[in-house]
Amino acid sequence: MAKRPWASSHGRSGSGGFPPRIRRAILTRDGWQCTHVDPHTGERCTATERLEVDHVVSQADARRLGWTPAEIHDPANGVTLCAPHHAARTRAQATAGRARARAARPRRRPPERHPGLR
Length: 118
Ligand SMILES: [Zn+2]
Prior knowledge:
Number of strands: 2
Oligomer: single chain
Mean pLDDT: 84
Number of helices: 4
Low-confidence stretches: 5-15
Largest sheet: 2 strands, antiparallel
Bound molecules: zinc ion
Structural class: mainly alpha
Strand content: 5-15%
């Protein structure tokens, strides 16, 4: 089935959707620094190299919500992340997407009330 699982996270609907001008605006707004905040320490990542711009609401989700391309690529929907944090976030989103897909279809039948009881 999944012959090349490593190839699936990039390409097609992947990142890089922001026009260069918007991308620059996002990077400038965020001070050209990764915006990831460690949930345990509350400290912001200090990376200022290998920065990438990611969508806050993923393009797939935004399209599902009926957003226009202008809304999807609005600076408000962009965050600056270093490459490792971007990769981690993309992985987390993929996992969440799979979990959602799993949750959407019930795996077992809901318990039925005994027809004799009420
Ligand atoms: Zn980072």
